[in-house]
Specification:
Strand order of the largest sheet: 2-5-8-1-9
Order of helices and strands: HHEHEHEEEHEEEHEHHHHEHHEHH
Number of helices: 14
CATH architecture of the largest domain: 3-Layer(aba) Sandwich
Largest sheet: 5 strands, parallel
Shape: globular
Distance between the termini: 28 Å
Low-confidence stretches: none
Helix content: 40-55%
Length: 322
């Protein structure tokens, strides 16, 4: 195991010891970070979404900012704006909270279209435009946006173009009873006077993250596995090739961006498992998070309460393994 991979594995273990009951969320956030992407996380309040991204930023010594999305938010509240300096008579650009290595966009679906558009440019182009000038964002830049699945009043649905910009759409659920007790004991311990948080033993820096990306992207991808990956994507666009009934559930299939995302994330998953080649299991480990927001269901499917996850599961059953 390489030194940088050992650091990432230690990072994962540490985060799972602090974010109890959300092992999948921790895994997917680390994969998203290494894949140079962004994550949309959906879950009820109180499931440690904020704590997860904040802990990740602290562990890699990255800058962190949190933006609470509200209906009255303006694009300049995210990007920053030109401020007039009376002493010099010039305008000076003051950076907004988007200029951080890791950004939490809390309840993103509460923001109007103009604000979402400003965030979309930052996510897609890694820059913001203010006053006719472009300002580059940091090399390590990751947005974790959250959505509350319970409350829908006063929310704006994210457009498909913006959803496609998210590498992963991660859904999290409530912890088990045993995990609930472990969370309670951990909080009680942390609240004791004189308690000190254990130090994160792994000496990891942003440069290590960039090195880890390169190592992961060099993982071998055989032609047979590559063909399997492509056929999974093609099955979302032409489901009639595999099942006529499946055709009635999919209105639009996944874009080529999904193919690229699946390739990257499968490589990173294999790398984290200390393998130098990709297997179908690596694809299966990330395929739901990559495709669930990129498959548009028909009205008929929605009326029958068929979910994108149901469709993905059916495609995995129909497309033959290599």
């Amino acid at each position: 195991m390489s030194i940088v991979r050992e650091k990432i594995v230690n990072l994962k273990k540490y985060m799972q010891s602090k974010i109890l009951g959300q092992e999948d969320l921790v895994d997917k956030l680390i994969i998203t970070m290494l894949a140079d992407g962004h994550a949309l996380v959906e879950g009820a309040p109180g499931l440690a979404k904020t704590k997860a991204i904040k802990t990740l930023a602290d562990c890699v010594e990255a800058s962190f900012s949190r933006i609470q999305f509200t209906p009255d938010l303006l694009p300049s509240d995210i990007t920053g704006s030109d401020i007039y300096i009376s002493s010099t008579g010039d305008f000076e650009f003051r950076k907004g909270p988007i200029f951080a290595n890791m950004v939490l966009a809390d309840e993103i679906n509460r923001a109007p279209a103009k604000v979402q558009s400003a965030l979309l440019e930052a996510m897609a182009e890694r820059q913001v435009s203010v006053g006719g000038k472009q300002y580059k964002l940091p090399q390590l830049f990751m947005v974790m946006a959250t959505q509350n699945p319970i409350e829908h009043e006063g929310t704006y649905n994210l457009p498909e173009a913006q959803l496609d910009r998210f590498l992963m759409y991660i859904k999290i659920d409530q912890p088990s009873a045993q995990t609930e007790r472990e969370i309670l004991n951990l909080v009680r311990q942390e609240e004791k006077s004189g308690y000190k948080m254990p130090n994160f033993a792994c000496d990891i820096r942003i440069e290590d993250i960039l090195s880890a990306r390169q190592e992961a992207f060099d993982i071998h991808f055989s032609e047979a596995i590559e063909e399997y990956l492509v056929q999974l994507i093609i099955a979302t666009r032409h489901p009639e090739k595999y099942d006529e009934n499946l055709k009635n559930t999919i209105s639009y299939g996944a874009s080529p961006r999904a193919t690229i995302a699946l390739d990257r994330c499968a490589r990173i998953h294999a790398w984290l498992q200390n393998r130098d080649f990709v297997t179908p299991e690596d694809i299966h480990a990330v395929v739901f998070d990559i495709l669930r927001h990129r498959i548009i269901l028909t009205f008929e499917a929605q009326a029958n309460e068929i979910t994108a996850d149901d469709v993905i599961q059916k495609i995995l059953q129909l497309v033959p393994l290599p």
